[in-house]
Amino acid sequence: MKNKEYLSKKEAVEFTGLDEKTFINYFKNAGEFSSLKREGGRGRFLFDKESLKKWLEGYKWRTIDLTAEDYALCLDFALAQHFRGYVLSDWGTARQREFGQKITNWVKGQLAEVAVKKFFKKEFNVDIELDFRIHKQIVPQDIISITQNGGKREPKIGVGIKSSKPKSAYLVLSENEFTRPERKSDVYIFCRPEIPDDHLLRVTRDQIIKIVKNQQHYSLYKDQIPFFENMPCEIAGYSWADELEKATSIPGQDFEGIRFVKKTGLLHRNRKDWEDLLKKL
Q: What is the DSSP string of 263-277?
């Protein structure tokens, strides 16, 4: 029998390829993976390498590359929302977000939906139709039809696709999303797209350079202006509505009011889980 190999926290961070803050958040708060039990809660954190390897394989399997074409689809939707005057406020407050933040949040949300669509097609050969139309009201269900075995039909259950930052340890829903019948879904799929903060700079790179190339400081940063690259998005898993837990806070964040949450490490995410969900769709 092969002896088990254990990694220190530093080695485990390097092995997974996660940045340290994300690793700690996944370990301490998300329940993505665990360390060996420490005597009296003291001593070094040690991680079973084989367990981390299995986690990493699942993580990579669920991660989809999003292209410039995918991004363009989502940016178009975000700009349409902006120019029709849709107001997007900060989470749980009345403070309105500025243009860049609004666009980033809309693009991020739509990228998550596209990632789920590509994941279902790639892994299960199931085609889903997303609703990218502009509506007067928020539409709670993100999947509007399914094409499978040559036939197209409406979903049997309501599906909400939610997104957050790559380091996020929880799926979080506001009280309105969860309790209002016109907004609630039966199941929530959670995604973590890696959209860079400077994504608008990347897609306008050539125009920006054209404007500033004759300015005095251009030589200081001309080689640092990033190109657009494919963006990975992890489909972290899903939770049924009745599995979400009521909370007023999560580690590192206090909420204004009630939220409904789930640790990402407790989401349904293996192949059988997805097959079960697709059967119910």
A: EGGGSB-SHHHHHHH
Q: How many other CB atoms are found less than 10 A from the CB of residue 262? A: 23
pTM of the model as a whole = 0.91
Residue 189: exposed, middle, or buried by beta-carbon count in 10 A (0-12, 13-18, 19+)?
buried
**Amino acid identity, position 219:** S
Task: Give the pairing of strands 159-163 and 187-193.
Answer: parallel
* DSSP type of residue 29: I
Tokens 């973590």 belong to residue: 192
- The residue length of the chain stands at 281
Q: How far apart are CA 49 and CA 16, in angstroms?
A: 10
User: In whole angstroms, what is the distance from residue 274 CA to residue 123 CA?
Assistant: 10
How far apart are the C-alpha atoms of 71 and 75, rounded to whole Å? 6
Report H helices in 136-227: 175-179, 199-203, 205-212, 218-221
| pLDDT tens column, 97-155 | 688 889 999 999 999 999 999 999 999 999 999 988 877 666 668 999 998 777 889 99
